[in-house]
Amino acid sequence: MNSQHNSLLVDVDSVRRTAADRGLTLPPLIWDDTCTSTNDELAQLVREGAAGSPVPEFTVRGTDFQNAGHGRLGRTWTVPARRSLTWSILLTPPAGFSQWGWIPLIAGEAVHSAVAEAGVTAAIKWPNDVLTVEGKKLCGILARVEPLSSGPKIVLGMGLNTRLEPADLPREDASSLAIETGVDGSEIDHEALLVSILSTLIPCYRELVEYGDEDFRDSRTAQRVRDHMVTLGSRVRVEKPDGTDIIGTATGLDSGADLIIDDRVSLSAGDVHHLRPAASPTAPERSDR
Asked: For this UniProt entry, which residues form the secretion signal (predicted)?
């Protein structure tokens, strides 16, 4: 651990105790004041562990400042130090797991739930963002697969804008919890947010694994994802990885969480632009999971 432990945004021992109070037993967390990329550094630990002691599932690697973060499609992602909740978690699905597309969406549901607890109504954007009801980005999610001889592992990273002020925003269509709630950024509790996200993410992921080859769309978690996804019902333009566009109405998700356009075309990847938003999802009623 970094020598500046007491000044870090997240006290790892406190997080483990609070998580235990909510029924979650976590392996040791790794948190320091700066790193290049939490996804890169956790992935490196996973590769190194493959040759000796495997890294436990749900290991968290977080930082107060990520200076070489990644976005989708090779983009970079950087915000000022101590202004976001930036971390990655290791998931180790069983052999034969194929529901990769649901991973960023259940992560989005976990973030949606946590920011609702913090007083912010948000919405999930397919495939990997959480937005304000006005369509401004609060959180980006990036999942990468590490192919190992023991089976593929998932390194799931998230960056939630927490303490950013208007002058800090990387672009006009972004926001933060501080801006949305109107509170001073120092009042935002990163530990509480992290525990809240984990308390939803881990049970939802376990449900996904338990479904196996069954259609996960029938699950309670998938229903919540659909309920909170602003993309569904919206007129959209999707920039596909091959550089072409498709325009239509997002009408659903298929069994693998691909986006269905006009009830006929399924897309597994692409940048989505909302042309005519659907009615804004409302904050869900809280319920025990």
From this structure: none
Contact 156, 91 (CB under 8 A): yes
Q: Answer for the pair 235, 249: CB distance below 8 angstroms, yes or no.
A: yes
Say if residue 40's pLDDT is above 90.
yes
Which domains can be identified in the chain, with CATH numbers? 5-222 (3.30.930.10), 232-276 (2.30.30)
φ/ψ of residue 284, rounded to 5: -75, 155
CB count in 10 Å sphere of residue 211: 17
Residue 21, number of CB atoms within 10 A of its CB:
10
CA–CA gap between residue 275 and residue 270 (Å, rounded): 15
- Long-range own/partner contacts, residues 117-120 (CB < 8 A, 24 or more apart): 117/192, 117/196, 117/286, 118/177, 118/181, 118/188, 118/192, 118/193, 119/181, 120/177, 120/180, 120/181
CA distance linking residue 183 with residue 118, whole number of Å: 11
Per-residue pLDDT averaged across 148-157, rounded?
94
Instruction: Kindly tell me the burial class for residue 172, based on how many C-beta atoms sit within 10 Å of its own C-beta (0-12, 13-18, 19 or more).
Output: exposed
Q: 280 burial class (0-12, 13-18, 19+ CB within 10 angstroms)?
A: middle
Question: What tens digit of pLDDT does each residue of 178-211 get?
Answer: 999 999 999 999 999 999 999 999 999 999 999 9
- How far, in Å, CA of 104 to CA of 201, rounded? 10
160: which 2 tokens?
């939630």
The type of residue at 237 is R
